[in-house]
Amino acid sequence: MTKKHVSNKVPTPEVSSNLKGTFIMVMILGFLMVGAWFGAYWLFISR
Q1: Between residues 17 and 44, the one the model is more confident about
Q2: What is the model's pTM?
Q3: Which one in 22, 30, 37, 42 has a CA-CA gap of 20 to 30 Å to 9?
Q4: What is the pLDDT of residues 11-42, one digit of tens each?
Q5: Cα 35 from Cα 41, distance rounded (Å)
Q6: What are the helix and strand counts (H, E) for the chain?
Q7: In a 3-state reduction of DSSP, which class is residue 15?
Q8: So what's the pLDDT on residue 47?
């Protein structure tokens, strides 16, 4: 008879904090990109 290996994988807090940091970096990059677009638009309009 073979034994069934049961593993209880529970997400660790490190994974959650890693995803939280990723989300924050994506938001910062998004704000920088939007800021660059508005800056270019403002520069185009002001000339």
Answers
A1: 44
A2: 0.57
A3: 22
A4: 666 666 788 999 999 999 999 999 999 999 99
A5: 10
A6: 1, 0
A7: helix
A8: 85
Q: Which amino acid would we find at residue 44?
A: F
Q: Residue written as tokens 């939007």?
A: 34
Nearest to 17 by CA among 9, 8, 25, 29: 25
Residue with tokens 């002001």, as numbered in its chain? 46
For residues 32 and 27, give the distance between their C-alpha atoms in angstroms, rounded to a whole number. 9
Tokens representing 28 are 């910062």
Look at the block and give the residue holding tokens 């704000």. Answer: 31
Residue 46 to residue 29: CA distance in whole angstroms: 25
The token pair that represents 10 in the structure block: 């529970």
